[in-house]
Amino acid sequence: MVTKGAAPMPVTVIGGFLGAGKTTLVNHILSGDHGLKVAVLVNDFGAINIDAALITSIEGGLYSLSNGCVCCGLNQGFVEQLEELLAARADIDHIVIEASGVADPARIMDTVRYSRFASRLRADAIVVVVDAAGFDEAIAAAPGLAEAQIGSADLLILNKTDLVGREQLDAWRARWTFPDTRIVETMNALVPFDILFAGEISPRRVASSFVAEPVHEQAVSAIWRSEGTVDLKRLQKVLAGLPTAVFRAKGFLRANDGRCFAVHLVGTRLSFEQLAKALEGLDADNILVLIGFGERPPFESILAQLDGCAEPAAPAAKGTA
Ligand SMILES: Nc1nc2c(ncn2[C@@H]2O[C@H](COP(=O)(O)OP(=O)(O)OP(=O)(O)O)[C@@H](O)[C@H]2O)c(=O)[nH]1
């Protein structure tokens, strides 16, 4: 229970387009030395919460919100989750909500500001992560959404600075930012905690001219699952050849050489990140979530191609009696 008279719990909403680095930032927060007990609510798009599985430390508490996007439609489940968190975790200092990559973070913060939470939650900041190398691709994939996301930011994290030059970063800043928006440039979303949590982020004063289009309602997803292992080279080829209508793919694979990987496709950039061991708690050996926009991408044929990369586990040897 929240103690009567206790200060309202600060809430940070982390937004930003698909693949910008939000989960990377959450991992930085959860493994960081900031002296705060942070509870994280993760809202992934699609039926499986891959982001929750990608989060490596759960010291403060991790809560998965995967029943669709919490910024739109009926968000009663989200309200209930906040209520549960407040009731059960009186020892936490800060709540961080990772929005899905197709969400409008401002709408999520609107829920935090509901009158029922007035004495218990405090909207601290909307932090929006930007893929400095992929912002144009994001705009092309879902016109209106990425602009609206940055337009609601109290703090912008211009991430993936390792992939672009100074000139491109300066051009981005000149094109997209508002005079009173604070920007931190990062690699792997390593934003200093004294900026994130020290109450230094002042709310934006100048209203954004970007208006959110309801494009998140046009986002579609498919899930591929298989048991056994996969032929990595073949799978790499399939993912590298996906139509541009599929903007994001993420998941986990077991290769036929025994290695396990987290897989990320963001726009046209594909990466395989080797894991120390296979993840537990997933409902298949190999899982990929594919997210796209617009005309429904040809998911059936993509899933069939992925099936062609699977190498099912050999059946257990039968006795000879
Ligand atoms: N090169 C580079 N890659 C990065 C950086 N930050 C994150 N990534 C990679 O970008 C990919 C997507 O990162 P995530 O943190 O999963 O992105 P996200 O915003 O949570 O993605 P969604 O939840 O799908 O919207 C992963 O492969 C990360 O390792 C960075 O600064 N530089």
Automatic annotation (TrEMBL):
Presence of keyword Lyase: no
CDD domains, sorted: CobW-like
Keyword annotations from UniProtKB, A to Z: Chaperone, Hydrolase, Nucleotide-binding
Pfam families found in the cross-reference section: cobW, CobW_C
Reaction catalysed by this enzyme: GTP + H2O = GDP + phosphate + H(+)
Gene3D superfamilies recorded: CobW-like, C-terminal domain, P-loop containing nucleotide triphosphate hydrolases
Family classification: Belongs to the SIMIBI class G3E GTPase family. ZNG1 subfamily.
Protein name: GTP-binding protein
Source organism: Pseudaminobacter soli
